[in-house]
Amino acid sequence: MDALDLPHLDVGPHAGVPVVLLHGFPLDHRLWMPLQRELQKTHRVLVPDLRGHGKAPVRPDGSMEAHAADVLRMMDRVGQRRFAVAGFSMGGYVALALARAAPERVAGLALVGTRAGPDAPEAAKGREATAQKVLAEGMRVLDEAMFPKLLTPAAPADVQALTHAMILGTPPAGAAAALRGMGARRDQRDLLPTLRVPVVVVHGTEDALVPPEAGREMAAAVPGARFALVEGAAHLVPLERPDEVAAHVGAWAATLR
Ligand code: MLT
Q1: What single DSSP character describes residue 50?
Q2: Which one-letter DSSP state was computed for residue 167?
Q3: What is the pLDDT of residues 47-89, one digit of tens each?
Q4: What's the CA-to-centroid distance between 57 and ligand 1, angstroms?
Q5: Mean pLDDT estimate for the chain
Q6: pTM of whole model > 0.90?
Q7: Which residue among 27, 63, 90, 187 has the greatest number of ligand 1 atoms within 8 angstroms of its CB, and so is best to mutate?
Q8: Ligand 1 atom closest to Cα of 150?
Q9: DSSP H helical ranges for 184-223
C-alpha cells in the first residue's frame, strides 16, 4: 500500500507508551487540542492530519487501511514500534483497521464516538451521492448537512467556529475519498473479542451521527473494556466536553504498558 507522510504534532515526554490521536471526518488534528494539552503532561502524544484532511496530502484512496498504513509509516519514522491509539469516529474506524493490520504494535485503544460495524448498503449509497455533491459544490454542502448534528446548541462559540473552520478547510477531494472509504469499510466486529489490550469506549448520549448503542455494543464485545457515557453531549464530545474525555482517556492511558 502506498503510505504517505502525515503532518503531525509530536509533544510530551519520550517515556512509556506513546498515544496517537486520530481525528474524525471531515476534521483535522485540532479536534484533539484539549485532550492533547492534558495528555502531553504524562505521555508522548502524536496528532496527525489524516490523508485528505487538514494539511495532509490528498489521495483517491481514502480506505481505512490506507489511513492505517499512513499511521504505521508515521510511527516507523519517529522510531516507535508500539503505541496506543485514540480514534474519534472515522479515526476510530482507522484505529480498528490498525489493530487488525498490526496487532503487535497497538498497545491500547480509546474509541470515541465510533462503532465497529460497517455501513448499511443504503448508507454507503448515500456516501457516494454526498461525495459527488461535495466534488461538484464544495465543502459548504457538508458543513450545512453535518454541523447541526455535531454539537449541541449549548456548545461555546469558539468550538462552533473551530468546527466550521475544520470542515470548510478540508479539501473536497479529500472528503470525497474519505466518504468512499467509510462507505466501503469492513465490518470489524469479529476483531473485538480478540483484543487483549486496554480498551475504553467513550460516547455522548445525544450523538445523532453514531448512536450511543453502537458504542455500548462495541464495548460489550471487548474483554475487559470500559464504557463511559457523557451525558448530554453530541457527536463532537472531545471538543464539547473536553474535561470528561480527558478524565476517561487519561485513566485509560495510565493503564498502558
Ligand atoms: C466522523 O465523524 O468521523 C464521521 O461522521 C463518521 C461517519 O460518518 O461514519
Answers
A1: P
A2: H
A3: 999 999 999 999 999 999 999 999 999 999 999 999 999 999 9
A4: 20
A5: 98
A6: yes
A7: 90
A8: 2
A9: 212-221
